[in-house]
Amino acid sequence: MLRTLILTLALILCPVVAKAQSSAPFRSDRIVVTTRGEGPDVILIPGLASTSEVWSRTANRLDDHYRVHLVSVRGFGSVPAGANVDGALVAPVAAELRRYIASQGLERPAIIGHSMGGLVALRAAADAGRDRRGPQVGRVMVVDATPFFPSLISPGATVGDVEPLARIAYQALLFLGDEALRTQGTALGDQLGGAADSVFGTLGWQGGDRAVLAQGIYEVMTTDLRSRLPDIAAPVTVVYGWSADDRSPRAHLDALFAAGYRNLQRPARFERIEGAEHMVMIDQPTRFLAAVDRFLG
User: Fold this and answer.
1) Domain count of the chain?
2) How many CB atoms lie within 10 A of CB 50?
3) The whole model's pTM is what?
4) Which comes out higher in pLDDT, residue 286 or 184?
5) What's the CATH code of the domain at 30?
6) What is the C-alpha separation between 19 and 2, in angstroms, rounded?
7) Local structure of residue 37 (DSSP, 8 states)
8) How far is CA 141 from CA 45, 56, 175, 271, in A?
9) For 34-60, what is each residue's pLDDT tens digit?
10) Where in the sequence is the domain holding 48, given as residue range(s)?
11) CA pair distance 291, 297, nearest whole angstrom
């Protein structure tokens, strides 16, 4: 009887032990990751000044069938800034995301990134495509993000055009705080000849460390990943808010998004979500979740 009891306990406990040993605790001075659910791996990355809280509805939908990895970038919201308080942001966070994938033994996870999180997802996928010996990405969904954000406002814009404006935005956020963003979006649109409110005016602002926020807005405005798109081997889906009202800037985004992603190895799949602004997953949750199901299905 004792032998039977021991064997029964072994059968119950061994899978748990094996699972616990399959991935060591992940510690990072760039990102914080929490995990829930079981199944294929899906990584959710929030945008500028947002934390993983913006993905709560999406995570609730997915965690019955997927293992969901909720990322928060340090310095956004109430998450301590860590190493993000100084220097670059997008590239180091993307590198840390790849380290997370490798350390946890994830096999080609799907990555969904919103806004600046979309830049992080694209950078991680491009780095994975260039380094075939490292951790690979299964597929990417970019939510209301493009490889070069200013191209949504003025198609001919260059990094040189927007860098002076980005520097002003950086200084404004660093010294004046969150309120500066409300005027910076309008100023950017006026100086580039387009309306920027729909791109920079509704960022789901949760605040955070000023230095990290300032660096984040600077990189959102100046990061140009268009030359890195040919490195991306994973399929890419682009989801964005759209309006049928011809007076809305969002009624004219289709061609701009298509142009932004034209250098991919394989054509991107585009899904516009009518009635959504920048926070697509919050503005139109039902339509967005349907798009996520198609992306993962």
Assistant:
1) 1
2) 25
3) 0.86
4) 286
5) 3.40.50.1820
6) 26
7) S
8) 10, 17, 34, 10
9) 999 999 999 999 999 999 999 999 999
10) 26-150+226-296
11) 10
Could you read off the pLDDT of 255-281 as tens digits, one per residue?
A: 999 999 999 999 999 999 999 988 999
209 domain residue, yes or no: no
Contact call for residues 67 and 58 (beta carbons, < 8 A): no
Q: CA torsion, points 296, 144, 205, 293, in degrees to nearest 10?
A: -20
CA atoms of 13 and 135, how far apart (whole Å)? 30
Q: Is 40 exposed, middle or buried (0-12, 13-18, 19+ CB in 10 A)?
A: middle
**H helix or E strand, kind and range, residue 232:** none
Side-chain half-sphere exposure of 176, counting CA atoms within 13 A: 12
Output the six-digit token pair for 270: 């585009």
Please state at what angle helix 90-103 crosses helix 116-130, rounded to 10 degrees: 60
DSSP tag of 212? H
Q: Is the pLDDT of residue 16 over 80?
A: no
Cα angle 102, 233, 140 (rounded to 5 degrees) comes to: 70
